[in-house]
Fold this protein.
Amino acid sequence: MKAIEVKGIFKSFREGFLLERKEVLHGVEFEVRGGAVVGLLGPNGAGKTTTIKIIMGISEPDSGEVLVSGKRASRSTRENIGFLPEAPYFYDYLTGREILTSFARFYRMKGDISRRVDEVLEIVGMRDEADRWVRSYSKGMLQRIGLAQAIIHDPDLLVLDEPMSGLDPIGRREFREIISGLKKKGKTILFSSHILQDVEMICDEVVMIYEGRVIKQGVLEDMLSGEISHYEVTVEGVEEIPGFTPERRSGKRLLFMVEEGRVDSIVKAVIEAGGKIRAVIPRTLTLEEIFIREVKDR
Ligand SMILES: Nc1ncnc2c1ncn2[C@@H]1O[C@H](COP(=O)(O)OP(=O)(O)OP(=O)(O)O)[C@@H](O)[C@H]1O
Ligand SMILES: [Mg+2]
């Protein structure tokens, strides 16, 4: 089942004194499969937030369309999505608990609302701060309440715009755990980020967006295991290998990074120099390397 289908969306804004049209999305197209965790990845200004607003039915594309569970994105499809906007704004003179309670009412939740509020406060690690005014919250605490608000009505689909911004390393790890918990419950999650390591750690699929275009997409595992970028060769018992410059020395070991075509010749050179090979390890590209390479070719 397809949770989200983004079909060739174009979007432009009128800008400046002359209100000239500037096109910021040029036919963005991708899908989010039900049950998948998908990372929408791209640098500042790439068009992530604009795409997300269109998915949420907050903004209209100039052309193309977005389907959410097969229905055109609108106010009514929005109600079934847990949404964390880029800069969540909450009324300052409410507590975290009051905010979550009012969202639960807004979603017309049935059952024990106060218990559910406690539950999500626990999930996002905000139980101890729940009764403080939101205006006293740090950026990371606001982000956590934003996430709590997105999951309070237990939606099957979550759309999160930069969910990890403002979180410290512990917060990021907790967030990753929350995401994998939601994934285990069968939820579908689309989130944007420009932090490649975070995406690399939790996504099933990646959509890379750059200057308003999808430049690469696919299953993360395939992307990462696909290509060997170089080999790491660890050598002992020699001071140097003619023709090769070591990357690092540690104790009596030398570490070389060589491309595939030179592995045989370094092995031969080490043996000829009287040294010993300790390891030859193929290294695959990281998501960051893949991303930078895709962008550089443009
Ligand atoms: N309301 C608007 N009016 C004019 N231009 C806009 C508007 N909203 C977005 N843009 C432009 O559209 C482009 C994409 O912006 P968008 O916010 O979608 O990027 P983003 O990928 O979310 O970036 P970031 O990582 O910084 O959040 C940018 O060039 C931005 O200036
Ligand atoms: Mg953005």
Summary: The two ends are 34 Å apart (CA to CA).
